[in-house]
Every structure is written in structure tokens, then in C-alpha cells.
Design brief:
By secondary structure, this protein is of the alpha/beta class. The chain has helices spanning 14-26, 44-50, 59-64, 80-89, 104-117, 131-141, 160-164, 180-196, 289-301, 311-330; strands spanning 5-10, 30-36, 54-56, 70-73, 93-96, 121-123, 148-158, 202-209, 215-224, 228-235, 237-248, 251-254, 267-273, 280-284, 334-335. The strands form 2 sheets. It has a 9-stranded mixed β-sheet. The protein has a 6-stranded parallel β-sheet with strand order 3-2-1-4-5-6, with helices on both faces. Helix 4 (80-89) packs parallel to helix 5 and helix 5 runs antiparallel to helix 10 (311-330). The longest helix is centred in the last third of the chain and has 20 residues, at 311-330. The chain is globular and about 60 Å long.
Length: 336
Amino acid sequence: MSERIKWGVLGNATIARVCVIPAIGKSRNGEVQALATRSPGKAAGLVAEHGIRQLYGSYEQVLSDSDVDAVYIPLPNHLHHVWTLRALGAGKHVLCEKPLARNAFEALEMGKAAADQGLLLMEAFMYRFHPRSREIRLWVADGRIGTPRLVRSSFCFHMEGAISGNVSTPRLEPNMGGGALLDVGCYGVSLSRWMFGQEPTRLQAQAVRRPSGVDVHLVGLLEFPEQGIAVVEASFITALQQTYTIVGSDGVIELPHDAFIPWEKDATFTVRRRDEETGREYVVPGADEYQLMVEHFADAVLERTTLDFPPHDSVSNMRVLDALAEAARTGETVTV
């Protein structure tokens, strides 16, 4: 294999057009070989802009392209499982959008298929690659705010269709893996598990649903060992909330409302000591977390490193999401 891998992209989704395809184009170790979309004519400008070599009208054509080393899957949630399995079966490494699947059973099958084929599979949690995220994780792991006791995370925004009920989108279709929990609550669950460095033991949740049953507003409570608690907020029907706070025994780390997607501007976080009302602001130089993510994955494909977040981490995340969904549905405390 050369010093750069060749990517195939399944679908012309916004996240692919705006974030991941440009990130691959800027990366030091990858290039987009092929893009597949049901409407090739609408993608012609994107292909020309980014120098994509092949534009296909079907996903199968990408998987049949012998020049493609790895596939990025930005499809709706209900298609992650089937197209990941097909891509792995075609001998392609897979970077799949979050959430990896609709449930832990699907995620487990995907991880097993990757292991059986000797191929790489990773969930595209780009926020974990931003230098600010990694610096905060080191602060917590090094005990610089004492023992972490509470992680509060919010990823909420105003989706008019979720409020009016007259817009059709996969995000609002229960059979397509829709709902606020899977769409944005997955970030808060991932973050809390990462910061505590453990798995939760018990969960509770409350949700507001549309008549279809899909959740549009959910709050979960996760109990961790050693007196740890996490609060996860996810919503399609509120004003913007995109932040998290980590409260330790000796200090607090607080983020502004760009916690998961700071784009490429300088990123900040504030640290307050145990009894301080105001704290010190730290600045991390801007970075493209999508570029850092695809470079890490490509390095792993090129056998220069191992995946920081292998499939078993995603399976664990899905188990917690499944448990939160059950808790919200039943009103009962659920043991993970």
C-alpha cells in the first residue's frame, strides 16, 4: 500500500459534503477515490471541487472499485449495519458515522465481522480527536480536578420539523434509527464513559415523544462506580445547548457551547478550583477534528498505529444507549 489510502464515500449527505470529504482532501495520508450517490448530477460540482476520481450511481460500485481501501458511511442510522457488513465483505476498512448502529446487537455483529475479516471499523466520533477534548481528558485522568464526580452534557438544538410535526426526515423516523437519543445523546454517553473511564451500572431516563414514538427530547441519568453520576441531555425542540461540564472533588472544567463541534477556531475551556466562583480560561489552537479523525484512521489502515477507539468501545456505548431507551420507555431504573 502507498503512503496514502484511497477512500470511497457512500452517499452525498451533508456531513460528508461539508465536513468529511474536505477533511480527507486536507489530510496528509488520504484522498477520495470514489463517491456514490443516487443523484450523481447533484454531486458533479462537489466531485470537481475536491478532485474525486470516480462518481458512481450506486454504493455497490464503490465497493467493487479495487482502488478503494476504506469506506466512509454517512448514511441514515438504519443503513449503517447493512452497508458496513457489505463493505467489510468487499474487503474495505470502514469509518462509520455515529451512532455506529441502531442497537448493541447490530454493533456487535459489525465488530465481529471486522475482526473476522481482519479489517478496521471505527465509529466517527470526531470530537474525541480535537486537541481540546484530549487535553481535558488528560486533566481528568491526571487528577487535576480531583476525583470526577459529575459529568453534565447537553447536545440540543431547535429542529422545526420536530416541533411542527410536518417534516419528514430520517432523524424523526423510529424505524430508521431516529430520535434525539441516538442522534445527539450518543455524544453525551460517549463523553461520560470516556471521562469517567468506566461503564455506568444503573440508568434512568425521561423522554418527550412524537405520536410515532420517536423521542425528540430526552434526559438520562447514569450512575457510575465510585460515586460518579452523569446527566445526558438531548433534544430537537430547544434552543442551542452544546456543552459539557466535569465536576471533580477539587475543581470544575466548563466548556462553551461549541463543545463537540468547535469547527476550526481557537477552542477554550475554563477551570475553577474547589471554592472559586470564577476560574481561568485556557485556549487551545484551532484544529479540524474531522481531519484529525480521518488521518488517525488512515494511519491505522497503513499500520502506523492502532485504533484509539476500536469497535468494542462502540458496542459498549450502544449498550448504554439501549438501556437509556428502555429506561425512558418503561420509567424504570435499568441495570446495565
